[in-house]
């Protein structure tokens, strides 16, 4: 069972979004049968079996064991991952594309870049898993509280300059066997819904 799986097949994405099937996926973080799930979800076992077959067909659950119970065989299934994310690739031609009108001050462009990250890293994770290798990535996630909009703008400028300097220092177009790596840096207001007093309307997002 993987910690996270990226769904890029449109049909599998549609299946995972069904409320009943999403509930079954959550329940199958631990192995279970149609009978045990029927008791938890409150649906007939036959209906649970139908949903499980659909999930299994799309690779979202897998068989882990078969148990004999009297004159029948009970199938024990488990979700293939503890959590899932749907790749923008599932949207086909209408998926967000950062190549369209790039604008580092646009929130929509930030979303498009993030969507590309999900798509590309999802593909890389799948390949690394198949090859039995670890994917080399690095992520920084933090929070900074700016005293003013001007401080935020100054921070963004210094950050851009620092990243540009690092890229210039280490980028080698002619290195034999070198492999390109994508660098993404984003700054956006933190979403705070738990404390209305601290909530603010996002005005600027920088990538």
Explain this structure.
It is elongated and about 70 Å long. The longest helix is centred in the middle third of the chain and has 25 residues. The C terminus is likely disordered. It has 207 residues and is α+β, with helices and mostly antiparallel strands. α3 packs across α4. The chain contains 6 helices and 4 strands. It has a two-stranded parallel sheet. A two-stranded antiparallel ribbon has the order 2-3.
Task: Provide key terms for this protein.
207 residues, alpha+beta, two-stranded parallel sheet, two-stranded antiparallel ribbon, 4 strands
Brief overview:
This protein is an alpha+beta fold and 207 residues long. The chain has 6 helices and 4 strands, in the order E-H-H-H-H-E-E-E-H-H.
């Amino acid at each position: 069972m993987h910690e996270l799986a990226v769904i890029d097949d449109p049909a599998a994405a549609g299946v995972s979004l069904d409320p009943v099937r999403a509930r079954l996926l959550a329940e199958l973080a631990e192995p279970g049968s149609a009978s045990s799930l029927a008791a938890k979800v409150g649906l007939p076992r036959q209906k649970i079996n139908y949903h499980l077959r659909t999930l299994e067909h799309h690779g979202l659950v897998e068989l882990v064991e078969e148990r004999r119970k009297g004159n029948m065989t009970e199938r024990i299934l488990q979700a293939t991952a503890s959590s899932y994310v749907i790749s923008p690739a599932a949207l086909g031609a209408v998926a967000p594309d950062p190549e369209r009108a790039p604008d580092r001050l646009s929130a929509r462009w930030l979303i498009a870049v993030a969507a590309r990250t999900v798509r590309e890293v999802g593909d890389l994770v799948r390949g690394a898993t198949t090859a039995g290798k670890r994917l080399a990535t690095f992520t920084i996630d933090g929070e900074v509280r700016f005293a003013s909009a001007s401080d935020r703008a100054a921070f963004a400028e210094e950050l851009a300059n620092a990243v540009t300097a690092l890229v210039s220092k280490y980028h080698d177009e002619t290195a034999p066997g070198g492999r390109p790596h994508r660098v993404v840096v984003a700054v956006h207001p933190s979403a705070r819904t738990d404390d209305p007093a601290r909530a603010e309307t996002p005005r600027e997002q920088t990538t």
